[in-house]
Design a protein that fits this description.
There is one protein chain. The chain is mostly helical. It contains 6 helices and 3 strands; from the N terminus they run ααβααββαα. Helices cover about 65% and strands about 10% of the residues. A hairpin with a 2-residue loop joins β2 and β3. It starts with 13 loop residues before the first helix and ends with a helix.
Length: about 170
């Protein structure tokens, strides 16, 4: 790992910047995976369960098990087993959909929301401190990059899962 001071954008050629972005993205993914595993271990959840909790925390309201399958990339059977585990652990609550009694809706329990929120306090401050170093214009670029690469990732995941070759 380099300890050199980072160069500014003007000191890099476009080709060097593109290579650096790919390299740093790969490092970010690997390091964030380690962090995600450590956070899941800290709160006593499996990483896939933790991913579901994080996704539920971002939703504006309860979601169906089918939505959880779509959001996590799990099969419907795996999503059902995941929800069953989380209900048993008291992490999520499952209620009948008031508009369709055949369907259940899932949401985080208040206690889980508190517990997971507390686990995020220190990491959230650390990530926030990193972002404080950037101007509003730079934050807009970072947000745009993250949005676009997430969209590209979802598209490529769908392509790979469907067996498409091009």
């Amino acid at each position: 790992m380099s300890t050199d001071a980072p160069r500014t954008g003007d000191e890099w050629s476009r080709a060097e910047l593109l290579v650096r972005i790919v390299t740093e993205s790969q490092r970010h993914h690997a390091d964030y995976s380690l962090f995600h595993q450590a956070l899941a271990d800290h709160v006593g959840l499996h990483p896939t369960d933790m991913q579901c909790v994080a996704l539920l925390d971002r939703e504006s309201g309860p979601v169906s098990t089918g939505d959880i399958a779509r959001l996590t990339g799990l099969t419907s059977g795996s999503a059902t087993r995941l929800v069953d585990r989380l209900v048993k652990a008291g992490i999520v609550e499952r209620r009948t959909d008031p508009h369709d009694r055949r369907r259940a809706l899932v949401s985080l329990s208040p206690e889980a929301r508190r517990r997971i929120g507390a686990a995020w306090d220190t990491p959230g401050r650390a990530f926030g401190a990193v972002l404080e170093r950037y101007s509003d214009a730079e934050l807009a670029v970072i947000a745009d990059y993250l949005h676009r690469t997430a969209e590209a990732g979802r598209t490529q995941a769908h392509r790979l899962a469907s067996g498409e070759t091009d």
